[in-house]
Amino acid sequence: MSAASLTTTPLVSLVVPVFNEQESIPVFIDAIINERQQWDFDTEIIFVDDGSSDQSLTLLRQAAEQYDFIQYVSFSRNFGKEIALSAGLDHARGDAAVMLDVDLQHPLATIPEFVDKWQNEGYDMVYGLRNLDNQETWLKRATSRLFYKLFNLMAHSPLPEGGGDFRLLDRKVIDALCAMPERNRFMKGLYAWVGFKSVGIRYEQPARELGESKFNYWKLWNFALDGLVSFSTWPLRMWSYVGGVVAVLAFIYASLIVIKTLVSGVDVPGYASMLTGVLFLGGMQLLSIGVIGEYLGRLFVETKNRPLYVVAEKRTHTKEDAE
Ligand code: UDP
Ligand code: MG
């Protein structure tokens, strides 16, 4: 349904992934209740409990009991934020969905701006752009910059620098994303892949106040690797070129040795150069096998065709209820 053709008040589903966030949940709910009174569109919240082991689920149950617009889906274990977002979209009934974090790092005041661009300017996707310079450590600043550069160099659909999961999706985009079968869900890449008319809005991202970040450097590194491998075959193809260059260099070197032997006779064999050559090539072969392994491993996961997530418990208004 296009936003322009809506005659009734649109419904916007807020999709909120939650993983061990007992400190943030009550504050978030209070903030939303306060804020949504001023909004001229309807909202529902779909919390996705991503296998929390603290009191998060109890808090969500209570909230859903108390407020009709709050719903939740609870996973049987931790499946990761990307899958939690996908599950939220699967259960969203809205004419549009906005995905946001529960830690209030995504300012609620930006949501009406998203809706305005969607309703009045006809954009299908409105994404928040945060300033990458405002991150906590220089290492995070440098590595996130590097990631966007590398991704945009290698993948067909470029990512806007600083555009994350905080964004509004029109129903068309939600349906396109939900129809994607892959298990490896690097959402930022999927948003770019589906296309549609999109626009970015700048926002200031405050530091997290309650609880702590669920992403350490090791998780972020694996996340980046997932993104690159899922959206580009460059790491795989690169080895053909490397192989070609090495073969040419080896041929030139071999020719030089033959000429040198012909001119000045048989020399003492070059132990050092031989060992260097062998070790260098050995290292390169292991590296290239490792890259093939990255792709093969993902292929293996995809072919098993397992469901994306397992729901242990939920309380949602199904699509049928709404009609
Ligand atoms: N989250 C999740 N599953 C995970 C890790 C995180 O659902 O495995 C949620 C988390 O509860 C939060 C959002 O994803 O609502 C963003 O996480 P966080 O604030 O820790 O990330 P950061 O802001 O540090 O990138
Ligand atoms: Mg956060």
UniProtKB/TrEMBL annotation:
SUPFAM superfamilies: Nucleotide-diphospho-sugar transferases. Its main location: membrane. It is found in: Cell membrane. This is Glycosyltransferase. Belongs to the glycosyltransferase 2 family. GtrB subfamily. It comes from Bacterioplanes sanyensis. GO terms for molecular function: glycosyltransferase activity. Keywords: Cell membrane, Glycosyltransferase, Membrane, Transferase, Transmembrane, Transmembrane helix. One of its GO terms (cellular component) is plasma membrane. It is a multi-pass membrane protein. The chain crosses the membrane at residues 238-259, 271-296. InterPro entries: Glyco_trans_2-like, Glycosyltransferase_2, Nucleotide-diphossugar_trans. The keyword DNA-binding does not apply. Residues 13-176 form the Glycosyltransferase 2-like domain. Pfam families: Glycos_transf_2.
